[in-house]
Amino acid sequence: MTERLxxxxxxxxxxxxxxxxxRRVPDTAALEIVAFERGSFTSYSACGIPYFVxxxxxxxxxxxxxxxxxxxxxxxxxxxxxxxxxVDLDRxxxxxxxxxxxxxxxxxxxxxxxxxxxxxxxxxxxxxxxxGVYGVQTLADGVAVRRAVDDDKPTxxxxxxxxxxxxxxxxxxxxxxxxxxxxxxxxxxxxxLDPDVGELVxxxxxxxxxHLHTGEAVTGFDVSGDGRVRGVVTGARTLPCDLVVLGLxxxxxxxxxxxxxxxxxxxxxxxxxxxMASTAAGVWAAGDCVETWHRVSQRPVAIALGTHANKxxxxxxxxxxxxxxxxxxxxxxxxxxxxxxxxxxxxxxxxEAAAAGFDAVATTIxxxxxxxxxxxxxxxxxxxxxxxRSGRVLGGQIVGREGAAKRIDVxxxxxxxxxxxxxxxxxxxGYAPPFSPLWDPVLVAARRAADEGAG
Amino acid sequence: MTERLxxxxxxxxxxxxxxxxxRRVPDTAALEIVAFERGSFTSYSACGIPYFVxxxxxxxxxxxxxxxxxxxxxxxxxxxxxxxxxVDLDRxxxxxxxxxxxxxxxxxxxxxxxxxxxxxxxxxxxxxxxxGVYGVQTLADGVAVRRAVDDDKPTxxxxxxxxxxxxxxxxxxxxxxxxxxxxxxxxxxxxxLDPDVGELVxxxxxxxxxHLHTGEAVTGFDVSGDGRVRGVVTGARTLPCDLVVLGLxxxxxxxxxxxxxxxxxxxxxxxxxxxMASTAAGVWAAGDCVETWHRVSQRPVAIALGTHANKxxxxxxxxxxxxxxxxxxxxxxxxxxxxxxxxxxxxxxxxEAAAAGFDAVATTIxxxxxxxxxxxxxxxxxxxxxxxRSGRVLGGQIVGREGAAKRIDVxxxxxxxxxxxxxxxxxxxGYAPPFSPLWDPVLVAARRAADEGAG
Lengths: 455, 455
Fold this sequence. Notes:
homodimer; alpha/beta; FAD/NAD(P)-binding domain; Enolase-like, domain 1; five-stranded parallel sheet; 29% strand
């Protein structure tokens, strides 16, 4: 008998689950795999959208790792413009709506993969639905923003929110010659960083030509008579503009799951265990719709990031076909590039550490990315958050120029393995003058933390 | 009563021990610190010599982290041109020779730090002592080679040996416009890598314009009537030249220690425990003269590298002043740049794994340093050596272009913590298109290794 695997959503998480399942069970008579995607694209890099908008990537198809047609050639029946509107766990069916007007029909499954993604936050502010106001989450959103820049040639844009996506889009628009204002409710840009590190990012943004308005909440949008946005209203001012991009973060799409009685957590994401199983038998979840586990804070988190989606999809593809794999959770590692600056974080910030109940101290150092005497040595700032009692490294933040950001990976490994600052000093990382001072900046930070007596 | 700390040798290990001890005990009346260095320099970056020879670094003093005078200003009595020729453990004295003709005298100590460094290997071949044949280990050696290039304007140079120093000097000489031949006894360049990875380095060298002669042992040197080298003789040919640089590796200077009855291991290095204590009470060791521990092979190793020297010096400085620190050993991490190529390794190669008794398998992948669609994405090759039975990552090797080499750090952390390939897949490393494909190349290698079924 043919086993039926149904994937709800064509994002990276769902499609990598499908691809992995197909690879493990190549026989389409043994395993039928159908994926329903309400949009037009599958397996694309949402993280690449800012570079498409900024015209560093010229063809939107370069952001698509595998098109629906390519999936079909590999034995995965992808149906775009089809939205799953309901899951019936008792009957083991999904109700699918054909968005091209073909009505609804039920489709049976044995194993179900929820990959419904996340949606950008859109606060109910006056004028937010005006023409010219864009959220950016799907590739279709990215295409729309790009077209707006190409066709309408806006002179002034306002980016609302200064998370990664907001910052990267601000840079992209600056690169397209647009005057860009960035509005952030909090006193610092990039609220996923501690305020002192966020300030360094603020400096980078200003250097890049972004007009930064922190500590200003958007209260509404000024809309012209023809329904187009012409200004962003904050508590302090109205910023005239002809393009608005919302970068206020995203929220997992858990509605269909919740309606079916599948567990949805406080983050709005589908609850998963280490096997990426939902609370319902034979129902798995992967990608931006998921609530996963933060290994340091020991709290549920929903983090929309393509790399997690792919890893989770792999785990689901293995487990939904009788294998045994685990997704170990996350520690909040993220990197971003803002013009000439690189920004990275992992583990907990000071504020997050306090919120998670740690008695933490912080150490910040500046060093160079290469030996000081080697051409091209650039400044790098490393901040470590360390548990006072034990010296355990709880998190790290990095801001610097070329060569800075990916140093977060070794810090991520240190956080992952609960190394103390003193232990981190001893880690045998690579040294040669073109790549590092004698003490790698990460080790300099660890040494300072150890010298300051944590642990 | 004043405690007397004597440092034998002014290299990075010894001087960082002295600096750390002084920092812990600032009072010179409580702790006297004297360092004897037979050369003229202290605390310099031997790893920087190739860049000085290549004129990427213009002033030799840029390679000196702290001069003798700067150490003296910080309460460390550095005496250059003074060589310790004998240690008397019973009388707690060292015999010091004044190399400027001042004779010998004894100097008492309570705590002794051996930092005698390492010496380049110079096989007893005919003509090796001819003018124009240089070893490169000390800064004085580097100054001599640089002067030879500046003043004698050699047209042809031969570098003997293709370890890191040999390769970096070959590049440096090419940059100075010299025709460079590189002779290596083994069939591949860079014998610290597996042959397949070494071949990639060979390609990089040829691309950079180095004339590579592998599988050729040097049998002697052709010397002109005035005593200058004019050719390097191998089993296959005579390579005409007016400059020879020996890059055959180094051997720890353990003679003074051994003569005093202090334990010296099979590597020729001073035996040390995790506290960097030698076998003699109150005698410590740091830097290139040391025999330390390889955490994966579980064997003693001597690895001359400034970063180890500094870490060991810190540990000695703490422990020799009543503190408690440990040096956890090494895993053989190394990085190097050869023109546009970056090379890195950590842990064990296939050959080393077999020699250490592991049943290991290897996986090699190629990927890109950034998302494939992001401008500047460069090729990177990652090889993982994995224990067959458990899937444990025993080592990694990387060759690629910009952005490749420092990825070795996260692999080093994985090796350090005995992660399996499957565990490494789950590690939360940084992803954004300017820095990495969705799957970091390191994770791609781990995924391939896990898929291939090790563990």
